[in-house]
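About this split. The held-out portion is used to measure sequence recovery: a designer receives only the structure tokens and must propose an amino acid at every position. Recovery is the fraction of positions where the proposal matches the reference. Here is one held-out target exactly as it appears in the evaluation file.
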């Protein structure tokens, strides 16, 4: 299967029955586990890595592995840079062949976010790649960044931003946060619905780890087309490694390697089923 653009995998605007899962990976084992999950469930996949995690997995090393994994996959797969913060990293991702990039300008005032995002859109579109951006602010911390509070997306700002930038996907802040929740999130489904009714740009949900199956279904029914999952794959892989340690005192390197593949695969399959993206 060819490597595709994530926009080709999104449900059409009016189809609110499924969303495509975007799963963060940090090494070859995770990328491989993700591909296995997609193939076993015959489900499209977005493989992604966040700029805040590159300290552990340099993009010029892991990026080509992600591209090769997507090309090897027998179902359509896209490769995406998550939470791009610098033009340098965005340019590197595009030069490696990533089919989309996120520019996260949510920390900037609206006008500056628009200006910087437009620059990325021009660059990425000239190379045939798609762009995701963020408006409002998803809470928590993705990777090594400082944790931030949620700033719920305003409908007017989302509309203005989408029109002014021409982004291909828009991450909205509706009460979710990156990482594990310490208190149950209060999802603003009312706000999501208003944004969905106001703009046609495909909407993205960040901070998927820890939401319930009902939360996900509710978000999909109200317009979410792409859902990001990172922490749950890391945690499930770590759990599998601990199980190996406990059950096999003489465990070898490859037992741990295999634990990461299994942990990632299991978590991704679990989420793909909830997102109802099997066979799409
Ligand atoms: P979680 O780590 O909460 O799953 O969030 C993932 C995410 O939104 C990546 O951008």
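Reference sequence for scoring:
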């Amino acid at each position: 299967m060819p490597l595709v653009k994530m926009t080709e995998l999104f449900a059409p605007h009016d189809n609110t029955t499924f969303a495509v899962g975007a799963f963060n990976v940090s090494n070859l084992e995770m990328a491989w586990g993700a591909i296995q999950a997609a193939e076993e469930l015959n489900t499209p996949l977005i493989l992604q890595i966040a700029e805040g995690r590159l300290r552990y997995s340099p993009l010029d090393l892991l990026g080509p592995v992600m591209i090769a994994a997507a090309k090897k996959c027998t179902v359509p797969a896209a490769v995406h840079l998550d939470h791009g913060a610098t033009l340098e990293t965005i340019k590197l991702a595009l030069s490696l062949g990533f089919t989309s990039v996120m520019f996260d300008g949510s920390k900037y005032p609206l006008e500056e976010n628009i200006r910087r995002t437009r620059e990325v859109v021009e660059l990425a579109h000239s190379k045939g790649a798609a762009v995701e951006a963020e408006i409002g602010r998803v809470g928590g911390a993705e990777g090594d960044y400082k944790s931030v509070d949620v700033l719920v997306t305003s409908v007017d700002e989302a509309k203005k931003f989408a029109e002014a930038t021409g982004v291909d996907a828009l991450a909205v802040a509706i009460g979710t946060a990156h990482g594990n929740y310490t208190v149950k999130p209060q999802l603003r489904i009312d706000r999501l619905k208003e944004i969905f009714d106001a703009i046609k740009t495909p909407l993205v949900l960040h901070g998927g780890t820890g939401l319930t199956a009902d939360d996900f279904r509710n978000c999909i029914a109200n317009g979410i087309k792409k859902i990001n999952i990172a922490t749950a794959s890391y945690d499930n892989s770590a759990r599998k490694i601990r199980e190996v340690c406990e059950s096999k005192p003489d465990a070898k390197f490859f037992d741990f390697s295999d634990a990461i593949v299994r942990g990632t695969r299991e978590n991704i399959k679990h989420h793909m089923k909830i997102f109802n993206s099997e066979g799409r």
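Annotator remark: The chain is about 45% helix and 15% strand.
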